[in-house]
Amino acid sequence: MKIIILESPFLPPPPNFKPKPKPKPINPDKIPIKSSIHPDPWSLSDGNNISKPKPKSRNPKNPLSDDNARRIIIAKARYLSLLRKHQGPQAQTPKWIKRTPEQMVQYLEDDRNGHLYGKHVGAAIKRVRGLAGKKNEERDMRLLMSGFVGKLSFREMCVVLKEQKGWREARDFFSWMKLQLSYHPSVIVYTILLRLYGQVGKIKLAEQTFLEMLEVGCEPDEVACGTMLCSYARWGHHRAMFSFYSAIKEREIVVSIAVYNFMLSSLQKKSLHGKVIVLWRQMVEKRVAPNNFTYTVVISSLVKEGLREEAFKTFNEMRTIGLVPEEVIYSLLITISTKNRNWHEAMRLYEDMRSHRIVPSKFTCASLLTMYYKTKDYSKALSLFTQMQSKKIAADEVIYGLLIRIFGKLGLYEDAQKTFEETEQSGLLSNEKTYLAMAQVHLSSGNFEKALSVIEVMKSRNIWLSRFAYIVLLQCYCMKEDLDSAEATFQALSKIGYPDAGSCSDMINLYVRLGLTEKAKDFIVQIRKGQLDFDDELFSTVIKVFCKEGMLKDAEQLVYEMGTNASFKDNRFFKTFSKVMYGENKELENIMVSADTMALGLILSLYLENGNFTKTEEFLKLILEAGSGLSVVSQLVNNFIREGDLFKAEEVNGHLIKLGSRLEDETIASLISVYGRQNKLKQAQEVYAAVADSPILRNPIINSMIDACVKCGKFEEAYLLYKEVLQRGHNLDAVGIGMVVNALTYSGKHPEAENIICRSIQDRMELDTVAYNIFIKAMLEAGRLHFAASIYEHMLSLGFTPSIQTYNTMISVYGRGRKLDKAVEVFNMACSLGVSLDEKAYMNMINYYGKAGKRHEASLLFAKMQEEGIKPGVVSYNIMVKVYAMSGLYHEVEDLFKAMERDGCPPDSSMYLSLVQAYSESSKCLEAEETINVMRKKGIPPSCAHFKHLLYALVKAGLMIEAERVYMELLSAGLNPDLLCCRAMLRGYMDYGHVEKGIKFFEQIRESVKADRFIMSAAVHLYKSAGKKLEAEVVFESMKNLRISFLDELEVGLKIQRPSHVSRATDQGTI
Question: Counting beta carbons within 10 angstroms of the beta carbon of residue 682, is it exposed (0 to 12), middle (13 to 18) or buried (19 or more)?
Answer without folding.
Answer: exposed
